[in-house]
């Protein structure tokens, strides 16, 4: 296998080039990380390497021939691209994990014995054998990521392009998957795309390049995070809890209870890292506090409202929520309208709401994106838009579900400054995160979930991995 | 999700045989009178009960048939002039219109009941595999099964958008007006989201060689007993006979 990139120019539709005259050589066994901040063009480059988009200018040659010169069946065995949203890469044609992995080899009309061999091999490599008969739709985020990867590996590609492959995984799953990636066939070339060098890349990646100044260059040390100016905060009353749980119990139908008779207070002005293993109920807790689920027993008091009984409009004035898969929650066609939506539902006039949304976007450094469609932005900007929409109305309780995922240093600095600002104003901020470093930097408290209970304690030292 | 897992005889029956059953029901519609069609629908519901999906089927049928039935009987029985009218309290009704409404209702009921029986006992991918196995081009099988696959995708998307609107102050639990407002707010993002995701899904399919060749091979081909093949042939012959009766 050889992949030669010469004089490559790439751009997003209607925008200036993100890469100009880039060159790259890939040979069997290469393990290359291509790094770059949010919007640098990593995904676009990865898609071009995988033949999913055509370059504006220049050449990408697979085995000395252009992409379109290869037959379609041949292409599928040359390059596989695994993107950031694994659930969108499932075929929709398979019920079980085994069937999903077999889908690609079946398309190539391979003999049954070969399909079975490749499927079993990919399941083994990614630790999915015990899930072979599981319904694809009933997998966790990490399992889905591994399934998509297994589906790509079953094609026996000569080049594998992985776009932020660990973005949806917790620490333990990252380490497990990194171990599995270490066992890939040696002759397969692998390109990892990410915002920065990650701990799991150690021992896995041999070379690194960075997208900088329109080219592919050797990486430089990360610059210090930018200073984010924060408006002065007037004195606020920090007495009393922002959230009060009284005898809270909750569980999903046909599943063991997640919470049993939990009573605790979360103080105003606190930043609480919600921690616990997968399935402990972290996201479910945020859904309960947002009024999207009903407790089976007990009562929640959030800024003086019971989320179950409160008028959603009244409750929404006091809470801000970002969801883990924020892309699925955009409802407006322009960024400024998306950010202004909660204000509009509070009855604020459109012009005034847009003005306020514009101010928030300006503070976040995204004023020029106000008229764009949220789904047309890069992943980092989409997360920041979701965040702006959650804070524009000045909530008393802000709930963030993995909002830091996939953000580069500049965006992360803004997120942390915003959390600090809201907490100083007296808001309680709850963050569900698997990022230990992020939680350690921002959290004043930790809320450990597990075994049906919750334990709130001041955060001291390094927080344990989620 | 429409499919309900189970181990009943109908669950084990091949998708193409169940498809032939739907075809038989469809060819019955223009030929048989309403009581026969309703009896056949009742039989299908009873078969669903034997497969332990009776309640789920009945709930879905009620959701679909009650509004349709009401609309049919009101429009044909009271609003459209159809033969001589008879008084009913302060209103006039048309017996012929009611009979026509009953016929339409019975046709819709039978087709829905048999179709539900099929989709609730058949995994969509098994249907696609069965079509692949018969040599249908992969794209054609995909096209035929895509609407069933879409149901789950749309439900997930809609739930996410509803959550997003609710936490920002728009809720569905305060009456009809709010629900209508919510539906209006959900429509565009739902369509846009589905279109946006469709592009990514299409790329993913192409990358894995979908439609690269005119046919697919299968890891686990579906197997059929000779009795099932004979049953399917019988169903197809009966459908053909009904079409012949209709043509004559």
UniProtKB/TrEMBL annotation, chain A:
Per the record, the domain of life is Bacteria
- Record's keyword terms, sorted: ATP-binding, Nucleotide-binding, Transport
Residues in domain ABC transporter?
3-238, 243-466
SUPFAM superfamilies per the UniProt record, alphabetical: P-loop containing nucleoside triphosphate hydrolases
InterPro entries, sorted: AAA+_ATPase, ABC_transporter-like_ATP-bd, ABC_transpr_CbiO/EcfA_su, ECF_ABC_transporter_ATP-bd, P-loop_NTPase
- In Swiss-Prot or TrEMBL terms, this protein is called Energy-coupling factor transport system ATP-binding protein
Where do the segments described as Disordered lie? 212-235
Name the family the entry cites: Belongs to the ABC transporter superfamily.
Instruction: Locate the compositionally biased regions of type Pro residues.
Output: 218-233
Q: Does the keyword Transport apply?
A: yes
Recorded GO molecular functions are: ATP binding; ATP hydrolysis activity; ATPase-coupled transmembrane transporter activity
From TrEMBL, chain B:
Q: What is this protein called?
A: Energy-coupling factor transport system permease protein
Which species is listed as the source? Answer: Paracoccus lutimaris
Matching Pfam families, A to Z? CbiQ
> Where in the cell does this protein reside?
Membrane
The entry's keywords? Membrane, Transmembrane, Transmembrane helix
The question of whether Membrane is a record keyword is answered with yes
Kindly list the residue ranges recorded as spanning the membrane. 20-49, 61-79, 99-119
State the organism's lineage. Answer: Bacteria, Pseudomonadati, Pseudomonadota, Alphaproteobacteria, Rhodobacterales
Q: Which GO terms describe its cellular component?
A: plasma membrane
Q: Which family does it belong to?
A: Belongs to the CbiQ family.
Does Transcription appear among the keywords?
Answer: no
Q: Which membrane topology describes this protein?
A: Multi-pass membrane protein
């Amino acid at each position: 296998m050889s992949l030669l990139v010469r004089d490559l120019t790439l751009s997003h539709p209607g925008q200036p080039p993100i890469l100009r005259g880039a060159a790259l050589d890939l040979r069997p066994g290469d393990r290359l990380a291509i790094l770059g901040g949010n919007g640098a063009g990593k995904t676009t480059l990865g898609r071009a390497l995988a033949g999913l988009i055509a370059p504006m200018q220049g050449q990408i040659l697979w085995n000395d021939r252009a992409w379109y010169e290869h037959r379609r069946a041949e292409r599928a065995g040359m390059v596989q691209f695994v993107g950031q949203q694994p659930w969108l890469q499932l075929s929709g044609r398979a019920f079980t994990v085994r069937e999903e992995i077999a889908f690609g080899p079946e398309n190539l009309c391979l003999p049954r014995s070969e399909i079975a061999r490749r499927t079993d091999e990919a399941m083994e490599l990614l630790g999915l054998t015990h899930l072979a008969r599981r319904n694809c739709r009933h997998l966790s985020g990490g399992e889905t990521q591994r399934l998509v990867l297994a589906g790509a590996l079953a094609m026996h590609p000569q080049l594998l392009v992985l776009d932020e492959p660990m973005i949806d995984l917790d620490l333990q799953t990252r380490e497990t998957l990194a171990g599995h990636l270490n066992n890939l066939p040696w002759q397969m070339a692998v390109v990892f795309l990410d915002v920065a060098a990650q701990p799991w890349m150690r021992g896995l990646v041999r070379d690194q390049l960075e997208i900088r100044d329109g080219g592919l260059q050797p990486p430089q040390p990360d610059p210090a995070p930018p200073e984010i100016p924060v408006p002065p905060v007037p004195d606020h009353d920090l007495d009393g809890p922002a959230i009060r749980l009284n005898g809270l119990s909750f569980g999903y139908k046909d599943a063991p209870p997640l919470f049993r008779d939990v009573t605790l207070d979360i103080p105003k002005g606190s930043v609480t890292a919600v921690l616990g293993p997968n399935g402990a109920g972290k996201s479910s807790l945020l859904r309960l506090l947002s009024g999207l689920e009903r407790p089976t027993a007990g009562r929640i008091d959030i800024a003086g409202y019971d989320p179950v009984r409160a008028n959603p409009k009244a409750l929404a004035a006091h809470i801000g929520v970002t969801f883990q898969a924020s892309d699925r929650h955009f409802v407006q066609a322009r960024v400024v309208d998306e950010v202004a939506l909660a204000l509009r539902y509070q009855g604020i006039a459109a012009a005034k709401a847009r003005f306020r949304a514009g101010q928030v976007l300006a503070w976040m450094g995204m004023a020029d994106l106000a008229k764009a469609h949220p789904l047309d932005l890069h992943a980092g900007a989409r997360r920041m838009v979701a965040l702006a929409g959650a804070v524009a109305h000045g909530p008393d309780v802000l709930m963030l579900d993995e909002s830091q995922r996939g953000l580069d240093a500049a965006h992360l600095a803004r997120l942390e400054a915003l959390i600090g600002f809201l907490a100083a104003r007296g808001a309680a901020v709850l963050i569900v995160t698997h990022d230990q470093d992020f939680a350690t930097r921002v959290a004043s408290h930790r809320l450990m979930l597990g075994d049906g209970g919750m334990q709130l304690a001041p955060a001291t030292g390094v927080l344990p991995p989620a | 999700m429409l499919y309900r897992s189970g181990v009943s005889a109908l669950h084990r029956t091949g998708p193409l045989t169940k498809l032939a059953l739907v075809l038989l029901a469809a060819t019955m519609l223009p030929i048989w009178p309403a009581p026969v069609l309703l009896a056949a629908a009742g039989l299908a519901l009873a078969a669903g009960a034997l497969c332990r999906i009776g309640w789920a089927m009945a709930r879905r049928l009620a959701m679909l048939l009650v509004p349709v039935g009401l609309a049919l009987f009101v429009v044909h029985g009271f609003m459209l002039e159809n033969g001589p009218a008879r008084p009913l309290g302060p209103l006039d009704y048309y017996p012929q219109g009611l009979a026509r409404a009953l016929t339409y209702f019975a046709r819709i009921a039978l087709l829905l009941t048999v179709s539900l029986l099929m989709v609730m006992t058949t995994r969509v991918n098994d249907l696609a595999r069965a079509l692949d196995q018969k040599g249908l081009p992969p794209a054609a099988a995909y096209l035929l099964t895509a609407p069933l696959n879409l149901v789950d995708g749309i439900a997930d998307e809609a739930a996410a958008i509803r959550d997003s609107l609710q936490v920002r102050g728009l809720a569905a639990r305060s009456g009809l007006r709010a629900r209508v407002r919510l539906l209006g707010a959900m429509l565009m993002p739902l369509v846009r989201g589905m279109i946006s995701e469709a592009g990514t899904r299409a790329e993913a399919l192409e990358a894995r060689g979908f439609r690269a060749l005119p046919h697919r091979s299968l890891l686990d081909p579906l197997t059929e007993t000779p009795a099932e093949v004979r049953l399917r042939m019988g169903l197809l012959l009966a459908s053909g006979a009904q079409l012949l009766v209709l043509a004559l």
